[in-house]
Write a structure and sequence with these properties.
With 400 residues, the chain is an all-alpha fold. 70% of the residues lie in helices and 0% in strands. InterPro entries: Cro/C1-type_HTH, Lambda_DNA-bd_dom_sf, TPR-like_helical_dom_sf.
C-alpha cells in the first residue's frame, strides 16, 4: 500500500473503492448517496466529520473504520513480496546510465539476448509465477537500460518491454504508485514508435484505473487505440487489431468504472469486431486478445457497473469457448476473481467459493500475492456456507 496511510480521508475512500472495484455510482447507490456526493468526498471538497458516516462507508468497503481515519497497517503480504518490491524500487530509482556512471563494469547485453530475457520474464508472468518475476525484474531493468544506452534504436524494444512487465507485476501486487513510475518510463522510452506507445499504454490504463481515475483512463486509452488502429479495419493485420482491441477493452473498463454502462458496451462491441478478425489463440504484444478476451471483459464491465447477474450470464458464455483454455493462466485466474465477486454480489457464496478455488488451482500466486484476491478470499471465507477448503486456504494465508 506504500504511503496510503498518509493520504487524506477522501483519498483513502477513493483508494479502497478502487480496490473493491466499485464505480462511484455503484458505491453511491450502496451508501444511499448521490454520485456527486461521493465525488466531492473523494476530492476533499466535502468533509467526513460524522462517525456514523465513516462507519457506513467502512461497512460498504468491507474495512475497519480505523483504516479511514489513519490507524491502518500495511496489507497482509509475505516478507519476500515486500523485499522484492523494494528491490524493484531501488532499480527504478537508479540514474547511473543517464548520468554516465554505470553501477558496474558489465558489458551491454546484445539486443537479441535481451529480447529473449524479456520474453522469458513475460512467460513467467503469464504463468503467474510472480515470485520468480519479482526476482528477475530488478536485474532485467538494469540490463535493459544498459543495452538501450549501448544500442539506442534496437535496444528500445526490450527496454519498453522491461518497463511494461515491471508495471504489470506491480499492478498485480497492489503497488500502483510504483507501477505508475514504471509505466511512465515505458511511455517516455516508447515515444516516437506508435506500436510501442500503444503497448505501454495498456499498463497505463491499468494504473489509472487502479487509482480510480476512470475518465482520464478512458480518454487516454481511446487516443492510443485510434492512433494504432488501421485506416480500414478489414485490412488491419492481427498485431494492430490486437493492440487496438485491447486498448478499447481498457477504455470500456474505465467507462464501466465511471458508471457509464452504455459507453462500455459500445466500446466492447467495437473490440468484439476486431476480436473476430484476430481469432482466439493469438498473443500479439502479450495481450491474449481475441473473441474470448472480449467476452471476459464484458464480465468485468458488468461487475463494475453492478450488474452481477449479467456478469454471470456472460461468464457461462465466455468459459464455454474453446479460446478459454488458450488464455494464459494469469489471465484466467484474474478473471475468475471478477466472477467470484459477481457471485458474492448475488449472495451465492457456494459458487463464489467454487470459482475462487478454480482460480487458486489455475494460478496459486494470483491468490497468494494479489491484495485484491486476498480481499475476495476473506469475504468468501466469512460466509458460513463457504466450504472448508476456502476456510483452510484463508487460514493458511493469514486472511481473515
Amino acid at each position: 500500500m506504500g504511503s496510503i496511510e498518509l493520504l487524506p480521508v477522501g483519498r483513502r475512500v477513493a483508494y479502497w473503492r478502487a480496490r473493491r472495484k466499485l464505480s462511484q455510482q455503484v458505491f453511491a447507490d450502496r451508501l444511499g448517496k448521490s454520485k456527486s456526493w461521493v465525488d466531492k468526498v473523494e476530492r476533499g471538497v466535502r468533509a467526513l466529520d460524522r462517525l456514523s458516516t465513516l462507519q457506513e462507508i467502512a461497512r460498504v468497503l468491507r474495512i475497519d473504520t480505523a483504516v479511514l481515519v489513519g490507524r491502518d497497517v500495511a496489507p497482509v503480504g509475505s516478507a519476500g513480496r515486500v523485499e522484492g518490491v523494494d528491490r524493484i524500487r531501488a532499480a527504478l530509482s537508479r540514474y547511473d546510465i543517464p548520468l554516465g556512471k554505470p553501477a558496474d563494469c558489465g558489458l551491454a547485453v546484445p539486443v537479441d539476448r535481451m529480447l529473449r530475457d524479456v520474453a522469458y520474464a513475460w512467460t513467467a508472468f503469464q504463468y503467474a509465477r510472480y515470485p520468480q518475476v519479482l526476482d528477475l525484474v530488478p536485474d532485467l531493468l538494469t540490463r535493459a537500460q544498459r543495452t538501450h544506452a549501448d544500442t539506442p534504436v534496437s535496444g528500445r524494444v526490450p527496454l519498453v518491454e522491461a518497463y511494461r512487465i515491471t508495471a504489470a507485476l506491480l499492478i498485480k501486487l497492489g503497488d500502483a504508485e510504483l507501477a505508475w513510475l514504471a509505466v511512465d518510463r515505458a511511455m517516455l522510452a516508447a515515444t516516437g514508435d506508435r506500436e510501442l506507445v500503444a503497448a505501454a499504454a495498456v499498463q497505463l490504463g491499468q494504473v489509472l484505473r487502479a487509482f480510480g481515475r476512470a475518465r482520464e483512463a478512458k480518454s487516454v486509452m481511446l487516443a492510443a487505440a485510434y492512433r494504432i488502429a488501421p485506416p480500414v479495419i478489414e485490412h488491419g493485420v492481427p498485431a494492430e487489431l490486437s493492440m487496438c482491441g485491447t486498448l478499447l477493452i481498457q477504455a470500456a473498463l474505465a467507462a464501466a468504472q465511471d458508471g457509464n454502462e452504455a459507453t462500455a458496451g459500445e466500446l466492447l462491441d467495437e473490440a468484439a469486431g476486431m476480436g473476430e478478425r484476430v481469432g482466439d489463440g493469438r498473443d500479439h504484444h502479450r495481450t491474449g486478445f481475441g473473441p474470448t478476451a472480449v467476452d471476459l471483459a464484458r464480465v468485468a464491465a458488468a461487475v463494475e457497473v453492478g450488474d452481477a447477474r449479467g456478469a454471470i450470464v456472460w461468464h457461462e458464455k465466455a468459459t464455454s469457448r474453446a479460446g478459454w483454455r488458450w488464455l494464459p493462466a494469469e489471465h484466467r485466474a484474474a478473471y475468475l476473481l471478477d466472477v467470484a465477486r459477481a457471485y458474492l454480489n448475488v449472495g451465492d457464496a457456494g459458487n463464489a467459493a467454487r470459482v475462487l478455488t478454480e482460480a487458486e488451482r489455475t494460478a496459486p500466486a494470483e491468490i497468494t500475492y494479489r491484495p485484491v484476491a486476498r480481499d475476495v478470499l476473506a469475504e468468501v471465507a466469512r460466509d458460513p456456507r463457504a466450504p472448508t477448503t476456502i476456510a483452510q486456504l484463508a487460514a493458511t494465508l493469514g486472511v481473515g
